[in-house]
Write a structure and sequence with these properties.
With 798 residues, the protein is mainly β. The protein contains four helices and 57 strands. The strands form nine sheets. The chain has a 24-stranded antiparallel beta barrel. Strands 1, 2, 3, 4, 5, 6, 7 and 8 form an eight-stranded mixed β-sheet that branches.
């Protein structure tokens, strides 16, 4: 230690009397410096006596608790009996709970006896001037960690554009040919997207072709609110379990969780444990590794554990700094029907009910309105309320509760009431479900008064009065899986229906899969049927299958089929089918970048028939039109002007190549998600200026996005510049091109290399006699670095 440092340490207590806070900081810095130099600084506590003459000795020490260093020095005081005290502030900084017993007031701060803490050992090291504590885990405050969750990407507002999807069908049989088709038209902009669907089919009664409008809807998604506004044709949100959806034309505002693909709405598991030392925790869900967390000493909570639906088990392997390991298990039960605590799911709609969908274009009826709200009350309990009213029709209100019983299963209960011309009616329902790794079971029953009426589509058919269902399944591993399902339904004015079905499947390994199903009616006219199916893959692309089915009073059917799935790489697939009491068929499936095609021929009992189908799409964006396969989500257009035949990858999958204008269509992008789009550098010319080869595309739903990469052709050339007197420009003269900020130096013999050239370029250079200029024409050529010849730089400014 230097003499000046030692003198400062001895004078510091005297200078600091009456100025405690400044002294504490100064002394801490000085003590840290002394420790770093390896000096014995512990003797300072003998030099630093409290100004209020209380019988306390003060020590400024480093603090290590359960092998964790506190990032600052702490002031420890000792009474005449040798008891050590530490301040409340320092305990809080080390996450230590305050011990029982009254604190000691010293210098305006509260100090607690170390002996009252749940300690294992206490040690003061005179050499390193460090207080080392080993505390029991319960001495610490609990910590909480959450799984890493990436923020939702912000979608890019689309430029105006359009797309079209089409389906065309033709069939010939019995000397008659029929046609049908479908069309979807979409338009999008920063306001939202509008879709309209049409169907063209032949009327069975008179054979005339008829064009029917299906849905026409304008949708505006609101990512920040996690909701969507829809105007036009839509479908109402039904009540869980007992409700019915209705088609209508009007307005709907509803939550839309698909706007944030990374959002987890179902409850996730929370795990509590404690560690004596800082530890690493490996998390396993059903024996599958799910992540690793770092936790400090003491009790800890890990939130947001990824789980699967049904019953399972979470295992934690806690490994501390000393290498000690403990394994902790916690069972759980999870249901996707539940919402996380505090998460709301809602839908409000109003408009006119729609009838004869698919048959008539504009058959709208009476006005109606409905609202549904689901809310996660607790992690294990979700409540739902549903209300619907109809002009001149019934009014219905209901309440549902969904929950889980830990380690047992999930339950649901519903209660609803209606008021209509039929009178006042009520409905109640209750159910239970359990899913485990080796079996599953469920039971549900519903009972309604004859007067209970729902509006909308349900009013067109018989009203269900009683409905009971039960299912049980078991997974026997190598012995196969079996399940049984039972249903009993009684509707107003119709006979009771009671059925039971059985199924069994067995994995035969490389010999495929064998399955059997059976069905029997337990009420009404006797009815039963059974089927046996076998399928086996033949390599990566082919599959062979055989089946036998029979029913009471019917004809048994035997069928053999060979199929090659449609392969995007080769662009074709096929299916061959033959058997007994079944058509003999041959089908060919084709695919290219602009469409899908289907050809089929069949023969059955002497009659033949053929069928053909074609589907595709058209995208219009960025001033260009592209023929493509059908667009079912979002799409994008890459623009690389004057760069043809450049490969474009989306999420490391080759998606297309730029055309003669440098544009490429990306027909299948995931909405509201990061789609990584990359340009193949090897396909770019050597004189290309590249800022980045990769961009992230985040489009809105059913919309297009334009990707303009900061890549451009830096057309370059060499040329020779002379003065008007015929001399070459001096070496080192700087040449500028109008419209550019970069300057290009003249080399030997007046030769200059210039990039960023266009068709007509104005060059300027500064000479001792003034500024000169020259006009240079440039024409694109195969040579990446042409020599344009000699140009005269004429004086423009003396």
């Amino acid at each position: 230690m230097s003499r000046s440092t030692n003198l400062r340490r001895r004078l510091l207590p005297v200078l600091c009397l009456g100025a405690w806070s400044g002294c504490h900081a100064a002394y801490a810095a000085d003590a840290a410096a002394a420790a770093a130099a390896g000096a014995d600084a512990f003797a300072v506590h003998n030099d630093f006596i409290a100004a209020n003459n209380e019988a306390f000795t003060q020590m400024l020490l480093g603090l290590e608790i359960n092998r964790q260093q506190l990032d600052r020095a702490v002031l420890v005081i000792k009474n005449r009996a040798g008891e050590l005290f530490i301040s409340e502030e320092d305990l809080a900084a080390a996450r230590v709970l305050l011990p029982p017993g009254a604190p000691v007031e010293f210098k305006g701060a509260r100090y607690y006896r170390l002996s009252t803490l749940p300690t294992i050992s206490v040690k003061v090291d005179d050499v390193s001037q460090t207080l080392t504590l080993e505390l029991k885990p319960e001495a610490f405050t609990s910590t909480s960690t959450n799984g890493a969750r990436a923020a939702a990407p912000v979608p890019t507002m689309p430029s105006p554009g359009m797309f079209f999807n089409y389906d065309v069908y033709a069939a010939h049989s019995g000397g008659r040919t029929s046609f049908a088709g479908g069309l979807e038209a979409g338009h999008f902009s920063k306001l939202g997207h509008a879709l309209s669907n049409f169907s063209l089919h032949e009327n069975a009664a008179d054979g005339r072709r008829k064009l029917v409008r299906l849905d026409t809807t304008f949708t505006r998604d609101r990512p920040a609110q996690g909701a969507s506004l829809r105007l036009g044709d839509s479908i109402s949100r039904p009540a869980s379990g007992w409700g019915n959806a209705s088609r209508f034309g009007g307005i709907q505002y509803a939550s839309n969780f698909s706007i944030n693909p990374g959002l987890v709405t179902m409850p996730l598991q929370t795990f509590n444990a404690q560690a004596a030392l800082p530890s690493t925790v490996d998390v396993y869900v059903n024996n599958v590794f799910a992540g690793r967390r770092e936790v400090p000493a003491g009790p800890f909570t890990i939130n947001d554990l990824p789980v699967i639906s049904g019953r399972g088990n979470v295992s934690m392997v806690v490994r501390d700094l000393a290498g000690r390991e403990q394994v902790i298990n916690q069972p759980f039960y999870s249901s996707p029907s539940l919402l996380r605590k505090g998460v709301a799911d809602f839908s409000f709609e109003a408009g006119a009910l729609r009838h004869n969908f698919g048959l008539l274009s504009n058959d709208y009826g009476k006005l109606f309105g409905s609202g549904t709200v689901r809310y996660g009350v607790l992690e294990a309990l979700t409540a739902e309320t549903h209300v619907q009213v109809h002009a001149g029709g019934p009014a219905v209100a209901g309440f549902n509760v969904l929950g889980v019983l830990p380690s047992l299963g999930s339950f649901n209960a519903s209660l609803a009431a209606s008021r209509s011309d039929a009178g006042n009616g009520s409905l109640w329902a209750i159910g239970f479900e359990r899913q485990a790794s080796n079996y599953n079971m469920g039971l549900r029953t519903q009972l309604a008064d004859p007067q209970f009426v729902q509006g909308g589509d349900s009013a067109l058919g018989p009203r269900t009065r009683r409905l009971t269902s039960a299912n049980f399944g078991v997974n026997g591993g190598r012995a196969g899986s079996a399940s049984v399902f039972y249903l009993r339904q009684q509707s107003v004015g119709t006979p009771q229906m009671e059925v039971v079905s059985l199924s069994y499947s067995l994995n035969l390994g490389r010999y495929g899969m064998l399955s059997a199903t059976g069905f029997k009616s337990l009420s009404g006219a006797p009815s039963r049927s059974m089927s046996l199916n076998w399928s086996m893959p033949l390599g990566r692309k082919h599959n062979v299958s055989a089946s036998h089915s029979a029913s009471r009073g019917g004809t048994s059917i035997d069928q053999l089929q060979l199929q090659r799935s449609l392969d995007p790489e080769s662009g074709y697939g096929y299916r061959l089918q033959t058997g007994r009491n079944t058509p003999h068929q041959a089908a060919l499936m084709l695919e290219n970048r602009v469409g899908n095609y289907y050809l089929e021929a069949a023969n059955y009992k002497g009659g033949t028939g053929t069928r053909a189908a074609m589907s595709g799409g058209l995208a219009v964006l960025g001033g260009s039109a592209f023929a493509t396969r059908q667009i079912r989500d979002s799409f994008g257009v890459v623009q690389l002007p004057d760069m043809p035949n450049v490969r474009i990858y989306v999420n490391n999958q080759l998606t297309g190549r730029t055309d003669a204008d440098g544009n490429a269509l990306l027909p299948h992008l995931r909405a509201y998600d990061n789609n990584v789009v990359r340009v193949e550098q090897a396909d770019l010319d050597l004189d290309t200026s590249i800022t980045t080869l990769e961009m992230k595309a985040v489009p809105f739903a059913r919309s297009g996005i334009t990707l303009r990469f900061p890549i451009k052709r830096a057309y370059s050339a060499t040329m020779t510049l002379h003065t008007e007197q015929g001399a070459v420009l001096p070496a080192g003269t700087l040449v500028r091109v109008d419209g550019q900020t970069e300057e290009f130096p003249v080399g030997m013999d007046g030769v200059v290399y210039i990039t960023g050239l266009v068709a007509q370029n104005r060059l300027r250079a500064t000479l001792p006699g003034g500024e000169c200029g020259a006009t240079v024409a440039f024409k694109k050529a195969a040579d990446p670095l042409p020599n344009l010849g000699t140009f005269v730089c004429k004086i423009t400014k003396p």
